[in-house]
Amino acid sequence: MSRQANKTAIGAFVVGAAMLAVIAVIVFGSGWIFSERPIFVMYFEGSVKGLSIGSPVMFRGVNVGRVKSISIKADPRDLVLRIPVLVEINPDAVDTEEEFEVDAERELERLIDHGLRAKLDMQSLVTGLLQIEVGFFPDEKPRLVGGSRYPEIPTIPSTFERITRTVESIPIEEMVKKISSALTGIDRMINSPEVFESIKNLNQTIQDARLLVKNLDQRTGTLALEASDTLKGAQSLVSSMEGRIEPISSEAVIALREAGLAMEKLRETFTLESGIQHEMIVSISEMAESLKKTADAARPAITVGRDALANIGKLTGEDSVSNYQISSLLKELSAAARAIRIWAEYLERHPEALIRGKGGR
Hints:
Number of helices: 8
Low-confidence stretches: 270-276
Oligomer: single chain
Helix content: 55-70%
Distance between the termini: 198 Å
Number of strands: 7
């Protein structure tokens, strides 16, 4: 009897053959094997960990080639190790409107003059794989090594290299020492007894300030009421003095006029007969007594007027015109009253002075 065929093995063989056919179509159909592709070399100073053979070469997000080989090149003269990376560029990735033949090396020089540079770029943050990014960076200084049989594309530091160099240039150890010293000083200052005492004094000062503000609030109302009462009293005093000064001034003027008339009458009587002189002397004595009483009565009023003027001066100011006029009037009234009183007292003692004159002449 013949053995029965293994269906599992037959199925696996068919699937494998189909996969090989698909791979063959992809490889041979892409043209990578039979097509001629230019090879370029790039030298990277930093680590190329994450870059492998077959890694893509990208131009602004478009795959234009792949990494062909990665090796180490040693220079025995200066013992410098370099990492040349050979890449294959797919010319079909660049489509032109017209077909024309160009010299690859001459065209590369022209592109380098326009800022063509290559740098390592992160392909995946999860896997850490790298790719080569080709682009135009005219502001970046090109880095060329030379000495290779392949055309060289200059390289520039990658973003990760720039960050690494910046971090390495930071004096982290010195900064850590300064931070540690600062933290020690802060801890010493916070836990010092002087700080606790200062906080305690500050709290007491705040409480005293609150009490002071509270007392000021309470006294402000009282002071406002007292100021209002004082102002009302001053206004009443001014009104009262205005009513009292006017009568005093009128009485003083009338008294001065009467005194003047009396003096005129005395001069007219100088020529009267001697029998009438006695009656005149008696009348003059009575008039002198009346003048004395009037002067005595005017004295308190003048004193009150002076006090009132002082209070009014405080309210109206030292340079007030009304203050000056009232002061001058009261001074004149005071001088007139004083003269009348002295003259009346003298006539009371010497009534014959009206006839003989002062001194008995």
